[in-house]
Amino acid sequence: MKVKVRLARISDLKNYTNLLQRTYEAAYTQESLGLTKNCFSKKVFNTKNTQDYLKSKLQITDQQKTWLAFVQDEMIGSITISDNKDTCELSGLYIAPEYQGKGIGKRLYSLALEFSGTKNITLDIYQHNKNTISIYKKWGFEIDKNRGSFSRHWPEWPKGLEAKCIYMILRKKR
């Protein structure tokens, strides 16, 4: 399988939206928490609020890079890293479910790691996403106890529905 990686373009929005919608639905649905598939539906991902957010992730600048992975013309992965002066923030590491476990995430992560240089990398993640938390721990991240946790609510979700998130950090030796 030949995987091509390149920087994102605004014209990737439709395929990026589809990739994230599918991966969010697969990774974050947790019926016991009220996070149903409807919370991550195509309808939610195509609202103005979500589309504006996703467009912002496709903006390539000196402070932010998003790389996309493709097999032929199919977008199968993404990663975004932003330089926030003292640290870098990792977001948007998503691999299509059928391509997970094939080293694609690690390949994308290596680009973000290189971009961050000697700066620590932070991220936030849904606390119930145990599989991904374990991958980040394997890559050297630890739960950032100094920052604690927070609750996330998307405007498109039912009123009162929140998902607990935690912060993680990769501390680099300087």
**Which term fits the overall shape?**
globular
The major β-sheet equals: 8 strands, mixed
Please tally the β strands and state the result: 8
> CATH superfamily name?
Gcn5-related N-acetyltransferase (GNAT)
Strand content: 25-35%
How far apart are the termini? 37 Å
Sequence of secondary-structure elements: EHHHEEEHEHEEE
Helix/strand/pairing class, anyone? alpha+beta
On the 0 to 100 scale, the average pLDDT is 95
CATH topology: Aminopeptidase
| Number of DSSP helical runs | 5
CATH architecture: 3-Layer(aba) Sandwich
Q: Please report the first level of CATH classification, the CATH class.
A: Alpha Beta
Indicate how many domains the architecture comprises. Answer: 1
The residue ranges in which pLDDT falls below 50 over 5 or more consecutive positions are none
- Helix % is 25-40%
Oligomer: single chain
Could you walk me through the main structural features you see in this protein, from its secondary elements to its overall organization?
The protein is of the alpha+beta class. It has a single domain (3-170), classed as 3-Layer(aba) Sandwich (Aminopeptidase). The chain has helices spanning 13-28, 42-45, 48-57, 104-116, 130-138; strands at 3-7, 64-71, 74-83, 88-95, 121-126, 142-143, 149-152, 163-170. Strands 1, 2, 3, 4, 5, 6, 7 and 8 form an 8-stranded mixed beta sheet that branches. A hairpin with a 2-residue loop joins strand 2 (64-71) and strand 3. The longest helix has 16 residues, at 13-28. It starts with a strand and ends with a strand.
